[in-house]
């Protein structure tokens, strides 16, 4: 049997005495490479990062060297933005501006990749914001984002009200971007106004996002003519001219228009466009034949346009892989009896915001027009079923893997529809059923205890009966 190992006793008297409070002890952290210190500091908020500058002159240099600067509620006040209110924004404007200015005063790096300000301030601090933009451009920034609006106020105000508050909006002067040249690639402006003579300053942009901006009287066509490199264009909650022509944007791949007012027509002639989104309450006309290579389409439609979606779109867009349709019209009335087949669509989302009787036969006929569908999301507000005897023809969904049914009322036909999918989707991996719907659909509260128990029990019994293998989640 081996003897236990014995450690030699250390004579403490041989060790040099060191006072634990000795201020002359060696600072091992400050000896770390700049790259390591920068990584550590990158995990802190800007406020905490600036606080480390009191440790030493070297820490002050390192703490001011991130290549991405974000000035918002969390970084400046260590408070999540969803806890803010419109009143708290007004109370802290000067404190926020002072904090940004102090940080930029000791920024020592020579290169900046991204610069973002997200706070509710306007023309009252024009000189400060001008200085921040000039600083970012001087540092060779590639991404510049000014989100100068209050998220709390946007919850309660209409787009028209936000657009009319032009007197509080910061005006971005074209002269501030003159030094950007080829460096600035991405520009994100929220609740800002543009100076009228913006032209060549946008010539190197690849991405442009304008939100909550009054643009109805701007010559956007002239501005587009200088954007030879633009790949991504978004208008969100803007006041726009009656007509937009995108033909001069030859390299455009993504176009998103959401919740805008004033616009009536979009002229499309963009063979490189891959993603097109047009969502809102306005009736906007466009011809999809001008974008034959589209792979994702998200649109809100009314009445007759629903018929066009299910008859002409498959031929106009043969490469389409994702389709999302939002409507407040009577979809049952306008979906044609004979639907053209979408041969390449893998993802389908239908948001049906009008409370009309649920037509299970019509819904199944829609799904049969998508033979390669892998994901299906239905958001509806139907609280009643269409009357009549059900004669469901069997159809096998060979590729369907994920199904989400929101706004589910638990009517007999809706339950039969869920059963139909469980039975006929051979490789179904997940079925999610939720009585709640998103903001576009009439709100429906969660089930009461009796409703939820009935739906859960019915579907779980059927689930066991057919020996389904998918994950079923009922909220």
Automatic annotation (TrEMBL):
It comes from the Eukaryota. CDD domains: F-box_AtFBL13-like. Pfam families: F-box (PF00646), LRR_At1g61320_AtMIF1 (PF23622). InterPro entries: At1g61320/At1g61330-like (IPR053772), F-box-like_dom_sf (IPR036047), F-box_AtFBL13-like (IPR053781), F-box_dom (IPR001810), FBD (IPR006566), LRR_At1g61320_AtMIF1 (IPR055357), LRR_dom_sf (IPR032675). Residues 394-475 form the FBD domain. Signal peptide: none annotated. Gene3D superfamilies: 1.20.1280.50, Ribonuclease Inhibitor. This is FBD domain-containing protein. It comes from Jatropha curcas (Barbados nut).
């Amino acid at each position: 049997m081996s003897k236990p190992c014995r450690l030699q006793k250390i004579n403490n008297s041989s060790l040099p005495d060191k006072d634990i409070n000795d201020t002359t002890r060696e600072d091992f952290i400050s000896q770390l490479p700049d790259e390591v210190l920068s990584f550590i500091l990158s995990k802190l908020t800007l406020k905490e990062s600036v606080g480390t500058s009191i440790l030493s002159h070297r820490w002050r240099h390192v703490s001011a060297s991130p290549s991405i600067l974000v000035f918002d509620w969390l970084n400046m006040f260590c408070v999540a933005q969803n806890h803010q209110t419109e009143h708290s924004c007004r109370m802290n404007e000067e404190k926020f501006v002072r904090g940004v200015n102090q940080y930029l005063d000791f920024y020592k790096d020579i290169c900046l990749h991204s610069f973002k300000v997200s706070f509710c301030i306007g023309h009252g601090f024009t000189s400060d914001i001008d200085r921040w933009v000039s600083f970012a451009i001087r540092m060779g920034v590639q991404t510049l984002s000014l989100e100068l609006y209050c998220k709390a106020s946007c919850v309660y105000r209409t787009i028209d009200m936000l657009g009319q508050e032009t007197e509080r909006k910061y005006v971005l002067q074209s002269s501030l971007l003159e030094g950007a040249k080829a460096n600035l690639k991405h520009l994100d402006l929220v609740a800002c106004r543009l100076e009228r003579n913006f032209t060549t300053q946008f010539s190197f942009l690849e991405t442009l996002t304008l939100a909550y901006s009054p643009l109805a009287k701007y010559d956007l066509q002239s501005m587009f003519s200088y954007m030879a490199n633009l790949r991504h264009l978004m208008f969100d909650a803007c006041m726009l001219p009656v007509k937009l022509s995108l033909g001069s944007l030859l390299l455009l791949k993504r176009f998103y228009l959401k919740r805008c007012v004033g616009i009536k027509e979009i002229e499309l002639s963009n063979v490189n466009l891959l993603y097109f989104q047009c969502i809102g309450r306005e009736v906007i006309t466009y011809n999809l034949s001008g974008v034959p290579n589209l792979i994702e389409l998200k649109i809100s439609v009314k009445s007759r346009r629903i018929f066009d979606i299910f008859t002409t779109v498959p031929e106009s867009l043969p490469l389409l892989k994702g389709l999302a349709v939002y409507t407040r019209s009577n979809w049952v009335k306008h979906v044609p009896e004979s639907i053209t087949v979408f041969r390449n669509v893998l993802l389908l989302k239908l948001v049906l915001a009008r409370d009309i009787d649920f037509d299970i036969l019509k819904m199944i006929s829609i799904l049969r027009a998508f033979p390669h569908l892998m994901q299906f999301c239905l958001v509806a507000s139907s609280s009643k079923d269409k009357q009549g005897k059900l004669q469901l023809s069997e159809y096998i969904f060979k590729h369907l893997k994920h199904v989400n049914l929101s706004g589910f009322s638990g009517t007999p036909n809706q339950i039969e529809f869920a059963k139909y999918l469980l039975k006929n989707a051979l490789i179904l991996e997940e079925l999610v059923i939720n009585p709640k719907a998103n903001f576009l659909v009439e709100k429906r509260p969660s089930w009461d205890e009796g409703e939820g128990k009935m739906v859960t029990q019915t579907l779980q019994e059927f689930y066991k009966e057919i020996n389904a293998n998918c994950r079923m989640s009922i909220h």
